[in-house]
Design goal:
The protein has 30 helices and 19 strands. The chain is of the alpha/beta class.
């Protein structure tokens, strides 16, 4: 099946590409409309419940709406929900196109979808999860190549390299096709096994050269990429594959998957490239693409080098789609000021522009107060150790040395003295390196919304969308009442977060109405049953609230209303992380650190894998320079210190209602900003199998698993053994 390359000015108009795939979706939809099947049942979009998926869905549906293409969106939480949705589509005779956003790259697409849905269905996959399932690259047959469209993130040579057996994928393709198509031999040896390895290699190269002319003719005649020819014995049947070679090929495949999961181009970036190729790019779509990139960076899915490359591309797009402004004042390091709206532009009620800005690694400091934003920053925590009194004293001492009084730092940032805000970057540049804060900023973007609200940075918008996905409904969260904390944290007041009080989005309101009708129709059900069913749908309401928060037109009411929720979640993360460190609840094993959360006021929050993963990432940053000597690795050699600083973190949180533990694993890196592949996916699977633990792998993030409460100890023991053998 083809892997569509990213659009290029040099791309052939007839070759498979993003615009051609989208044109096929539109054409099939309009054909269905002409045949009297114009409902939304024909085009179905399944979206994973994550920030990138929500941004990509909002962008993709914007394009479809502009073409008057009816469609339906189904959010999916995990594989069980995906299976339920797929079963419901098996009887849908009107279905002609299924689009998967932020899911699907790890699934065998042909066997999972094509064999179950009607023969007219075409499948489009836009997903950032890697690695690819090899069946999606080398399998599927002619039918798969005609009906499955995988939107890739490589150049035009990527699909050509796959189709023609290029060196980049030579080992994986050879191993996959051998295991898939060659019959198995009962013998442990065959004629090929007697050959010297060099002779065998030469024979393979000769066969490949001899096939080149025949393969090119085959491609011209059939219009399909050439297939590797099978070895034929004297009887004309495919030559059996010896067990030893089958094992060798299996090792090659296992090595490919065991390298770990990582992320490619975001779904939002993929859709924006489509819009750009179609000539429909605008500020709304560009902003959502920037949010997709920012989410990948602050969630440590991509490293700084990759981020800088893409940031440069988006900077050019921002300059092209937005009117130039008076340059903002620069800080000491030559970066633009974080407050361009204060000093470089005049207030304009119609100003919805996107502007480059420099982002401090402080948590939502524009909407919080400076002290709390620094205190709840993972970067500051890792350098200062703010969970101890000494670390808090260092933070206060740094602010005093900068000339910032604690009274000013505890005020809302918007109420701070304007001269302090203008000099913030310059003073940080001169004082912060003395406290180890040498990577305090990174380039980003800020968008203004006229007189409707304060400017919103990309990082703040991503945090808000993430908070709505995690806790818009379904959990009890206390948030600060805006304006009640003027005298500091001891004088504030709080209220319980409620989505109703902050304005339900259109789709979320529809779900609420459906729930009310169901409650009236099923009065015979107990309160517990009704509550359980509502909790099961809570994640769906969270999805639609975040989807509504990203609607175009400059309406950011819900997005701004979720800022206090985001702050409360970050407080809970810092509170729980500090408690784990203070109470020595983190056990340093040989190849990872382990912490188990069984009690606390925020237990219900960390049952959510996304929130638990954020806590794990905070611990990775916080412990990188603080617990380097606690590992059981012998000695204090440089290699031991480096390995100790890069230890992964495994967190388990008790879900009391389900009687299970939610377990997540995140990788570590010796330096801030480094990103490594996550190997916990297969590790969790093998640990559950070896320990016979009752475990459920239901999330699209393979580094998340749910383990029965009684089986956690045996699961961790098996995981440690697995890590010792294969994660070194």
């Amino acid at each position: 099946m083809p892997v569509l390359p990213i659009p290029s000015a040099y791309s052939d108009e007839l070759s498979p590409s993003y615009p051609q795939a989208y044109a096929q979706i539109v054409a099939r939809s309009r054909k269905a409309i002409a045949q009297g099947q114009g409902g939304g049942n024909g085009l179905v979009i399944m979206v994973a419940n994550d920030v990138d998926g929500v941004c990509g869905a909002r962008m993709f549906t914007t394009l479809l709406t502009s073409d008057s293409i009816p469609h339906r969106i189904f959010p999916v939480e995990g594989y069980a929900d995906l299976e339920t949705r797929t079963q419901s589509l098996e009887t849908n005779s009107e279905l002609h196109t299924l689009v998967l956003l932020s899911l699907g790259s790890l699934l065998p697409l042909s066997s999972h979808f094509l064999t179950r849905l009607n023969q007219n269905v075409h499948l489009h996959v836009l997903d950032a999860h890697r690695p690819w399932n090899l069946e999606n690259l080398f399998g599927g047959g002619i039918e798969g190549r005609e009906r499955v469209w995988v939107w890739g993130d490589e150049g035009a040579d990527f699909d050509q390299d796959i189709a023609q057996g290029g060196k980049r994928w030579e080992k994986e393709r050879k191993a996959f096709e051998a295991l898939e198509y060659e019959p198995e031999s009962d013998s442990d040896s065959d004629d090929d096994s007697d050959l010297d390895p060099e002779e065998s290699s030469e024979e393979d190269n000769t066969d490949r050269d001899d096939r080149s002319d025949e393969d090119s003719n085959s491609e011209d005649e059939e219009g399909q990429p050439p297939r590797r020819r099978r070895k034929i014995d004297e009887s004309g049947q495919p030559k059996p594959l010896s067990r030893s070679k089958r094992r060798a090929h299996a090792i090659t495949i296992n090595r490919y998957y065991q390298a770990g999961t990582h992320f490619g181009q975001s779904v939002a970036a993929t859709v924006y490239m489509l819009a750009s190729a179609l000539g429909r790019e605008d500020n709304d779509l560009l902003w959502l693409a920037i949010l997709g990139l920012t989410h990948q960076y602050i969630a440590t899915r991509i490293d700084r080098d990759r981020y800088d490359v893409l940031h440069t591309l988006y900077t050019d797009e921002v300059a092209r789609l937005n009117l130039p402004t008076v340059p903002a004042p620069t800080s000491r390091n030559g970066h633009a000021s974080a407050e361009p709206a204060i000093s470089s532009t005049l207030a304009n009620p119609d100003d919805h522009a996107i502007r480059p800005s420099e982002e401090l690694r402080f948590m939502m400091y524009r909407h919080w107060n400076l002290y709390d934003s620094m205190f709840h920053s993972g970067y500051v925590a890792s350098k200062m150790g703010i969970w101890r009194e000494k670390g808090k004293g260092r933070l206060q001492g740094m602010l005093a040395k900068m000339g910032f009084s604690l009274a000013q730092c505890h005020q809302a940032y918007t109420n701070m003295d304007i001269s302090l805000k203008r000099n913030l970057f310059a003073r940080m540049d001169s004082i912060a390196p003395e406290y180890g804060l040498v990577e305090l900023t990174y380039p980003s973007f800020t968008r203004t919304y006229g007189f409707r609200s304060l400017p919103l940075s990309a990082a703040d918008a991503v945090e808000s969308v993430g908070a709505l996905l995690e806790a818009a409904v379904g959990v009890r969260v206390e948030v600060e009442v805006e304006g009640s904390k003027g005298g500091g944290e001891w004088f504030g007041s709080s209220r319980i977060w409620s989505l109703d009080a902050n304005g339900l989005g259109k789709k979320t309101a529809e779900i609420e109405a459906e729930d009310k009708d169901e409650d009236e129709d099923k009065e015979e059900e107990t309160n517990g049953e009704r509550k359980r069913k509502k909790d099961e749908r809570a994640w769906e309401k969270c999805f639609w609230s975040s989807f509504d928060a990203l609607r175009s037109g400059g309406d950011v009411t819900l997005l701004h209303a979720s800022l206090p929720l985001c702050m409360s979640l970050q407080k809970a993360i810092i509170r729980q992380g500090s408690a784990l460190i203070d109470k020595s609840k983190i056990v340093s094993l040989r190849w990872f650190r382990l912490a188990v959360i069984t009690e606390g006021p925020d237990l219900s929050l960390f049952v959510n894998p996304s929130t638990l993963s954020r806590l794990a990432l905070w611990l990775v940053d916080a412990l990188r320079d603080r617990l380097a000597g606690m590992s059981s690795i012998g000695g204090r050699s440089e290699e031991g210190k480096r390995r100790s600083k890069s230890l992964p973190v495994v967190l388990a949180c008790l879900d009391e209602s389900a009687g299970t533990y939610v377990v997540v694993g995140v990788t570590g890196a010796p330096e801030f900003g480094d990103v490594r592949k996550n190997k916990f996916g297969l590790a969790f699977q093998d640990a559950a199998s070896d320990s016979a633990a009752a475990a459920k792998h239901d999330k699209f993030d393979t580094s998340v698993v749910e383990v029965r409460k009684e089986d956690l100890a045996s699961f961790i023991e098996s995981l440690q053994q697995y890590s010792t053998e294969r994660m070194a």
